[in-house]
Write a structure and sequence with these properties.
The protein is an all-alpha fold. It is built from 30 helices and 2 strands. It has a two-stranded antiparallel ribbon with strand order 1-2. Helix 5 runs parallel beside helix 8, helix 10 packs across helix 11 and helix 24 runs parallel beside helix 26. It starts with a helix and ends with a helix. The N terminus is likely disordered.
């Protein structure tokens, strides 16, 4: 009878896993041809180094190092994108997003095995589920994680494969640790076994870090598992020294960060010179956002979710907004309670600390954007395990509640919400309208919608639109660019687009509005953001066309101002290089002086030397070879090798 019960339970687990996997594929499948946008463009569509056919071995090396993001260039992630291109012949939305979906399903399986292993931890002995109950709880946890609509912005935003792969290898490392640790808790370990586990963890940790820097959290997350669920268990006993060692390891990152604050605070504060907010303001805001993320995970309100969240107010002080100090105080109380009741509620402490540590890199001292939903991809794992146990016990406690009914109801709601949200991601204009409607005070959401309308107007003839419909799209597009500007007057993107639209289609408004003058005024106080650099690139491109010729000199002067005040910005140098290279007005001497000054002011910049080599080309071989020599000294990993090859081929 017992054997039959186990088999029946296993059958239900497999059936639920199959149904959930199918539902996940169907929900995401409708959006696999959706748009590539935002960071997808510079990292993938405009990155020719990752667009390889795979025939030359060195192309793979160059593709792996082709990302400018992160400390280590994220080569594992970039290689995966290169494989997409080599296999399908293009970086098509379908190939990229279908691969992301496959990775999502694999991680879902890892969530199952990780939760299954956690439920056997020594600290859960008092609350331990029977062996035949754990698989069902684990598959519920994996199902919640797989179907949660908050992960749409990770799976369908192609470039966030970086977050996916980092999560995959981090979870694999945690699973290896927990399985070894369960064995050691019961029977101890030989030196060889400890070494084997260490090698596995180092290997998986490296793969995680080389996918995205969040992988560096693996040791800290291991410490979370140790202090909450193992607590020094070794060879059938609880060892105090081992437990204390676990807490020491857990505290190391916080101690190191505190020392940096004390000894060299400018190391951290200096990174925010290019941001419109300070380190202090970011930390205050993240205290609120961590509660907001929890709210979205517990109550997945897809109306409140979205790709852009720049409409969330920055905390300028503890009292502005007033929820800032309330949020911080609540975190202090919750953390104190979880530590105080650690023995009584170990799984709650684990889920909470796992969530906070999982967010610690992107919600702390680094000068990143304030809010993105994809940052919950890994932190949600621990909360999913906790939710699964709570659901299982609720069904057991109230006899009138059947587990199948409760689980089925929850998963049906998640599938419905997921399907609605993925359907929105199937088409660019629909996604843009959805984001703007739900976040009308988001400057970026308004820009995204306005830009989608403008692109539709530009494609009017191909789409079969008449002149009246095309003009209506342009007028509506302009209205939302104006709306973006009214929300955030310190962003260049709206000004650039309004300048272009009025110049091309609304000459009366062009005479009335001096958009370039507003840009010139803004330049004196604005700290350039990534979006500003993109906008300036568009401005330079437009200035090189006949409609923009009348204002070309003013655009050049604006660039001169930016380059003078940001001499170490290679993106600005690139835009100035494009401008002077395209301007057929005898400025070769000025361009050469600019590039030589940039190379001298940035002695470690490979891009500066690369620009100089491209300038000389094959016209001045002596100067070209000298520039290449400088490049080789600065670019030990040979990132710019394809550029150098192009020079000699010309």
């Amino acid at each position: 009878m017992a054997l039959m019960s186990v088999k029946k339970g296993s059958g239900e687990v497999y059936a639920l896993a199959a149904v959930v996997a199918l539902a996940c594929m169907l929900a995401y499948g409708q959006a696999l041809n959706g748009p590539l946008f935002f960071d997808d463009v510079p990292n993938l569509l405009d990155n020719r180094l990752v667009q390889i056919d795979g025939g030359a071995l060195d192309d793979w090396r160059v593709a792996a190092l082709s990302s400018g993001a992160g400390l280590f260039y994220r080569p594992v992630s970039m290689l995966s994108f290169a494989i997409n291109h080599a296999v399908s012949g293009a970086l098509s939305p379908f190939s990229l997003k279908a691969t992301n979906l496959a990775i999502h399903l694999v991680i879902g399986a890892l969530v199952y095995f990780f939760t299954l292993a956690l439920l056997a931890a020594p600290a859960l002995r008092i609350h331990r589920l029977a062996a035949n109950q754990r698989p069902m709880v684990a598959v519920i946890a994996a199902s919640i994680w797989l179907l949660h609509p908050i992960h749409v912005t990770t799976v369908l935003y192609a470039v966030q494969r970086m977050a996916q792969l980092s999560t995959l290898f981090t979870l694999a490392g945690l699973l290896v640790f927990v399985r070894y640790r369960l064995r050691w808790a019961g029977s101890g370990a030989s030196p060889g076994e400890v070494i084997a586990a260490f090698i596995w963890l180092v290997l998986l940790g490296l793969l995680a870090v080389l996918s995205k820097e969040n992988g560096a959290l693996l040791p800290w997350l291991i410490a979370v598992v140790e202090v909450t669920l193992f607590r020094g268990a070794w060879n059938g006993q609880f060892r105090r020294r081992l437990a204390r060692l676990g807490w020491c390891v857990f505290c190391v990152p916080m101690v190191v960060l505190a020392l940096i604050f004390i000894v060299s605070p400018e190391t951290l504060t200096g990174q925010f010179l290019s941001r419109e907010f300070t380190l202090h303001e970011r930390l205050l805001t993240q205290g609120r956002m961590l509660w907001q993320y929890l709210n979205w995970l517990a109550v997945p309100n897809i109306i409140d979710m979205g790709f852009f969240h720049d409409d969330i107010a920055i905390s300028r002080s503890y009292w502005l907004p007033v929820t800032t100090w309330v949020s911080l105080l609540a975190w202090v109380l919750v953390l104190a309670a979880s530590i105080f009741w650690l023995r009584r509620y170990p799984l709650v402490a684990f889920a909470l600390l796992f969530y906070l540590v999982g967010h610690s890199m992107e919600a702390s001292v680094w000068p990143l954007e304030m809010v993105f939903e994809h940052r919950n991809y890994l932190p949600a794992v621990g909360l999913s395990a906790l939710a699964a146990v709570a659901i299982y016990r609720a069904a057991a406690r109230y006899n009138r509640v059947r587990l199948r009914t409760l689980v089925g109801s929850i998963l049906v709601v998640l599938v419905a919400l997921l399907a609605v949200r993925t359907q929105v991601w199937s088409e660019e204009l629909v996604l843009a309208r959805y984001n703007m409607t739900n976040h009308p005070q988001s400057a970026r959401a308004n820009f995204f919608y306005a830009n989608a309308l403008f692109k539709r107007a530009q494609q009017g003839e191909a789409l079969g639109l008449d002149a009246k419909e095309t003009r209506a799209l342009r007028v509506t597009s302009r209205r939302f660019f104006e709306r973006m500007r009214s929300i955030d007057e310190r962003d260049f993107a709206a000004l650039v687009m309004l300048y272009q639209l009025d110049t091309l289609y609304f000459p009366g408004l062009a005479e009335k509005n001096d958009w370039l003058g507003l840009m010139e005024t803004l330049a004196t106080t604005r700290r350039l953001q990534s979006s500003d650099h993109t906008a300036l690139g568009g401005l330079v491109g437009f200035a090189m066309t006949p409609p923009g010729e009348a204002s070309r000199a003013r655009v050049g002067a604006l660039l001169d101002y930016f380059v003078e005040h940001n001499p170490h910005s290679m993106r600005l140098l690139g835009n100035k290089y494009r401008y002077l290279s395209a301007a057929d007005d005898g400025r070769s001497v000025e361009l050469l002086a600019l590039l030589e000054a940039a190379a001298q002011n940035n002695p470690h910049s490979r891009q500066a030397a690369s620009f100089l080599a491209q300038y000389h080309g094959s016209d001045d071989l002596a100067s070209t070879y000298e520039a290449i020599r400088q490049w080789m000294r600065r670019d030990s990993l040979r990132h710019e090798l394809p550029v150098m090859r192009d020079i000699f081929q010309r």
